[in-house]
Structures are given as C-alpha cells and as structure tokens.
Specification:
CATH topology of the largest domain: D-Maltodextrin-Binding Protein, domain 2
Strand content: 15-25%
Structural class: alpha/beta
Number of strands: 10
CATH superfamily of the largest domain: Periplasmic binding protein-like II
Shape: globular
Order of helices and strands: HEHHEHEHEEEHEHEHEEHHHH
CATH class of the largest domain: Alpha Beta
Low-confidence stretches: 1-8, 269-278
Distance between the termini: 7 Å
Number of helices: 12
Mean pLDDT: 82
Helix content: 40-55%
Length: 278
C-alpha cells in the first residue's frame, strides 16, 4: 500500500539524517520545485494546504520538466523536488551532493502516435519523427524501447522539445509521435493521439517516481523534512480513501480534465502499483 511505502520513506530519511548531522534551530521554510506530472499526493497536499497544516512555510517553485529543476537544485534555488530518475542520475554524475529521500510509486511514460499512422509494430517506427524531452524519463524509456526492438537510433528522428511545444507540434502534425510522461499522454490522446507499445501497466518500462533534495540542506533541517513527509503521507491516505480527490487536485494543477486525471490515477490499479485500495 502507498501508506506503508510513505512510512518506509520517513524511516529511511530519519536514518539518513541521524547519520549525518544534528539539527540547528529550524525555520521550517522549504522551497519545493514542482512540475505538472502525476504526483497526486503532492498536488492534493498543496491544494489542501497540508504542508502548512503540518507546520511548514513552503515556497512552491514551478518548472515545466525535470532538467530545469536540476539546474535550480545545483544553484541552490530549491531544496527538494520530485520527478523521474534520469535528472537525478544526471545530477549525481555531475558530482552534485543530492540524495533520494522518498520512493513513492512507479510511473509510466507513453508513446503517443498520430492516429493516421496506424502503427502496429515497432519496425514501423523507422523513418518516423518522434518528439520527447531530452534528459527525462520519457526520453530514457523511448531509447530503451528502440534498443530492445533493435531499431538503430539513426533510423528514427528523435527531436528534443519543450513541454509547451508538444501539443502544438502534435496537433499540427509536425511530428509522427511523442514519448512523454503523464498527464501529457492523456492530453495527447484527447486530441486524437493513439498509444503504442508496451508502456502502460506492469512491464519493463516502468519509471521510478522519486523525491530528492540537497543532502546538506536536508541534514540541517530534519524536522522540516519530517513535516514534509508527514504531509505527503496524510495526502496519500486521503487519496487511497477517495481517489476522486487526488484526480481533482492533479486536474487543477496540470490543467487537464478531471475524468482523464482519474484515469491516470487508476492506471496502476490493474497491476497493483499506484494508490491501491487500502
């Protein structure tokens, strides 16, 4: 259950800070980087002011995707954030002093093709133009899929795009398909896109959905972090009880239809991964 995973994260963080530092006086201020992605527990907590109710003084800094968050983290402009694993790995490879402190769920990316393409096999992707956001989980998944299907990268045109360019490029048919994470996959389907490939559900293409932050800041603010995780845990329990509430929160912050947001939320119930019934 998501509840148990949240508590395990709290215990993991307590062990982490216990090994590193004893805290000084804390202000309970926390700068949180966020993006429109399917992190229901975060958006519900933000909507219901659970962070403030837990005693925090949050500042919410909006981004469009993961790589810009990495730059902000490197500059010390945010304290914690969430998203897929690739930006975090990129930060570690650059020598940044960062750490994962919570692993809450498994998320999926989608490969959405133009309905006119009628793609039925991976080999039909040869010669196609596919947009994605370099350095994200969606980019990683696409590369892994093409490699697994033994399709040379030179035979597929992979285009790096900004999140704001995805919908216009797709609706104008400037690309044949887009590899992207939710909720954007559902948005593309709402304008006629068709999902292709083994990306949804339990398969080898799941992506870790993580919370991570600056190690030194977290070590110096353990009580603030406990409050943050407690708010996420309360949010997860509320969504387990009433999934519609989580869907409403995602729809509000991601600018999508509530019904589609609920579909994103319940994707993992078939494989027992995302917000299962308590």
């Amino acid at each position: 259950m998501k509840r148990l995973i949240s508590l395990a994260c709290l215990a993991m963080f307590c062990a982490f800070v216990g090994l590193i530092n004893t805290a000084k006086a804390e202000t309970n201020e926390i700068r949180i980087g966020w993006q429109p992605a399917a992190f229901f527990e975060f958006f519900y907590a933000q909507q219901e002011k659970l962070f403030e109710k837990a005693g925090l003084k949050p500042t919410f800094v909006k981004f469009t995707t993961g790589p810009p968050m990495l730059a902000a983290m490197k500059a010390g402009d945010i304290d914690v954030t969430f998203g897929g694993m690739p930006p975090f790995i990129a930060g570690v490879s650059e020598g940044m002093d960062i750490s994962v402190f919570c692993f809450l769920e498994v998320g999926n990316t989608s490969l959405i093709m133009q309905s006119s393409e009628e793609i039925t096999s991976a080999n039909q992707l040869v010669g196609k133009k596919i947009g994605t956001i370099f350095g994200t989980s969606a980019h990683w998944t696409l590369m892994k899929y093409l490699n697994a299907e033994r399709i040379p990268l030179k035979d597929v045109s992979i285009v790096n795009m900004g999140i704001s360019s995805l919908m216009p490029a797709f609706t104008n048919k400037d690309v044949d398909g887009i590899s992207i994470y939710e909720p954007w996959g559902f948005k593309l389907m709402s304008v006629g896109g068709k999902p292709f490939g083994p990306f949804v559900g339990a398969n080898g293409y799941e992506q870790a959905a993580i919370y991570w932050g600056r190690r030194e800041w977290m070590a110096n603010n353990p009580q603030t972090m406990k409050m943050f995780l407690a708010a996420l845990d309360e949010s997860a329990r509320a969504i387990n009880t009433k999934p519609e509430a989580g869907a409403e929160a995602l729809a509000r912050y991601a600018g999508m239809d509530r019904a589609d947001a609920l579909k994103v939320l319940t994707l993992g119930r078939e494989c027992g991964r995302r917000f299962p019934h308590p």
